[in-house]
Amino acid sequence: MASRTRRHGPATPARGGSQRRRLPMRLLLPMLLLVALVAMLMLRGYVHSEILADHRVQPEAATDKVPEKILDGGPVIDTRSGRTTSLKVPDHHIVLTFDDGPDPTWTPKVLDVLKKHHAHAVFFVTGTMTSQHPDLVKRIVDEGNEVGLHTFDHPDLSYQSKSRIDWELSQNQLALAGAAGIRSSIFRPPYSSFADAMDNKSWPVTQYIGTKGYLTVVNNTDSEDWQKPGVDKIIKNATPHGGKGAVVLMHDSGGDRHQTVQALDKFLPEMQRKGYQFDNLTEALDAPSALTKVTGVNLWKGKAWIFLVQASDDITGAMVVALAVVGSTVIGRFVLMLLLSGIHARRVRRKGFRWGPPVTEPVSVLVPAYNEAKCIENTVRSLMASEHPIEVLVIDDGSSDGTARIVEAMGLPNVRVVRQLNAGKPAALNRGLANARHDIIVMMDGDTVFEPATVRELVQPFGDPKVGAVAGNAKVGNRDSLIGAWQHIEYVMGFNLDRRMYDIMRCMPTIPGAVGAFRRSALERVGGMSDDTLAEDTDITMAMHRDGWRVVYAEKARAWTEAPETVQQLWSQRYRWSYGTMQAIWKHRRAIVEKGPSGRFGRVGLPMVALFMVVAPLLAPLIDIFLLYGVVFGPTQKTIVAWLGVLAVQAVCAAYAFRLDRERMTHLISLPLQQILYRQLMYVVLLQSWITALTGGRLRWQKLRRTGVVEAPGGPVPSHRTRSSDRRPVA
Predict the structure, then answer these.
(1) Can you tell me the distance from the alpha carbon of 306 to that of 424, in angstroms, rounded to the nearest whole number?
(2) 99 an active-site residue?
(3) Which among 116, 293, 308, 637 is most buried, taking Cβ atoms within 10 Å?
């Protein structure tokens, strides 16, 4: 977005109440939306957290506190109501158990094989996988199988607190309730194996689990399918000896399980021929079902959880698409900027380049001023050093701080003061236009200073009769603060590099209010400055394009302006800029379907402006959101490398822009911090502008507080600085 100025005049209250009441809500809505998006992304990242291989993550402990009857007992351990017993599966019964699912690829294949051979099994599901694939859990239950808890995200509970254990169980049950409307009373600890592997770390967990009403199920036959040893080896490992019953451990998730599926398809009929039955756990133990229906509030809590998880997946998917769009857009814009700005620089800097015959006739410089007592003297004195003949019109727009009196007291030749009641900046410029004596009109702000050559360089393009307006090179004068340095980078890279690109493409969207020039005839043909939008500079520039005039960029016409020095002032300024740009795009929308120069601008310029100045900046923070996602949930190293790559591309563009503008590279030191902090502020501002536009709100103009410290480098030094005691309001 190009550099713009504030509008003069008193604030216009927002519709439906004062702006003071509405503004906090408008600030709150973008923040809430951003927080909601981040929360959804974090939810997805948590639910999609990686499940580790099925082995202990800590060394085993001693076993002296574990009862012998547990160590020597069966794979089903009952510690409910103070019991310390274990159960074995009857002979010729096999309870197949599948851990870590459900998996969208392998669980359906396992279920197909079970159904094919009329067998049942127990699926110990994690809450994360259940939340992602609720339909599979429902299918498991509908086809007569049992499900058991395997915690929410698969930690080793031997090293967790009781509160963490409670949370793992409750979240696992919540996911089951939402997926299939059931809860389960059987549980398998992650990283468990045989009963005789119980130790002093895992036994207290088993006891505690029993107090919550769960049977703990380990196994006594391990297929070791997670090692992918081959189909025959899996079958051999899973086969119990001597007709004994067994709880067989298999997996339907956690990687490629094609060997498991193939082994199962051979194992089931082979063992059935030997007289084995494949039952659920409770069927094998001749006990009541482990599954009970969930109703009421708990059921709706579960459904709400599943909805949120599914929504987070959908939103994340949309964000990925948006990220691809913004990534392509950003890269495309960088390529265009580097290519076209280089072409522009070579064209205007080649030896002997001229726009046309030299422009030497006097021009009128319009300086609209509203309460600019701190800056106006610097502004006017900088114009007096101009190398080009000028007349200066200071249009005092109802100032109350003595701005007009200060100019009149200077007693400078060719400087006139035009007073009017406060009517706003467009009205002030039109008033100046009506009083101007010359055919070329230069416009600047009351807080801006020109270099001696600025006016001369600014008007030379009018040697080409097709040129109707010229954009100058606006510079940040107060760049010593961090916020000032960030805006300096933005002006050089984001504004001036863009102007070079738009000049070549003949669709420059904005003549900056700080430094611009117009043909008087061109201004009169489009009706002068309009107050239809809050971005009168963008509005008039688009009107120029539609009227068939060429708008160009004069890189040597430098103007030094005072940028906002606080976040609040910056917010206020950029909020108006972005909202005004949206208004201007909407006002000139008919250009898209018109013919001639207007249609060309409408089908080239308007989409470019909308894409690069409204849509892309709105989506740009996705890069940082996904950076946060990748750092938290991995792969951290690749994420950081990717972000550094994006930053490097931006740094190259910024360095190139600084080289073209002959700026010192030292200010680029703050570029990484600008990308992390400043861009987010601009994003929220743009989002707030969208909300204001969509809700039909009205935006007030607030005058930025100026300090009057900006002077043109090497330019004239004012003979004196006006003291604050001299700036009394006009009576």
Answers:
(1) 54
(2) yes
(3) 308
